[in-house]
Amino acid sequence: MVCPNCGQELFPRISPAIIVAVKRHDQILLTKYAKGYDRFALIAGFVEIGETIEETVRREVYEETGLEVTNLQYFKSQPWGFSQSILMGFFADLANGDTYATDDYKSDPDELAVAKWFNRDDIPTDDNNLSLTKTMISAFRSGDI
Fold first, then answer.
1. Spatial CA neighbour of 24 closest among 77, 102, 79
2. Per the count of CB atoms within 10 A, which of 8, 44, 49, 109 is most buried?
3. DSSP assignment, residue 132?
4. How many angstroms separate the CA atoms of 43 and 33, rounded?
5. CA 55 to CA 131: how far, in whole Å?
6. pLDDT tens digits, one per residue of 84-128
């Protein structure tokens, strides 16, 4: 932005954040936050100082669920004005996915009320397609990912 009076340029501060869809074969892990938003969502969080985007993806998944991921695949990004951030969306495979039981995770009760695996055909639908979360869930549901 440029001030029309003095010509000074202003650049907004933007906080980098990630959102990740964890996959296990034809299943996706959906979560509900412990507070606030009551719809199914993906795991998300802010990048910490000195951390790469990839490290953030792995840390956030582990902090919120105790699960480890591999094969990170960048999907797309979205500006998110509510938190002055840029969301970077990833898909990731559950590491050692064949050795985990379907519900073998630990949900952090301070972060998540629910963390649940859904088969592609059983993913809950939501009429709101404005967010990167919904775009990613829809891409997985339709088999594009």
1. 102
2. 44
3. H
4. 9
5. 23
6. 889 999 999 999 866 655 555 666 677 777 888 999 999 988 766
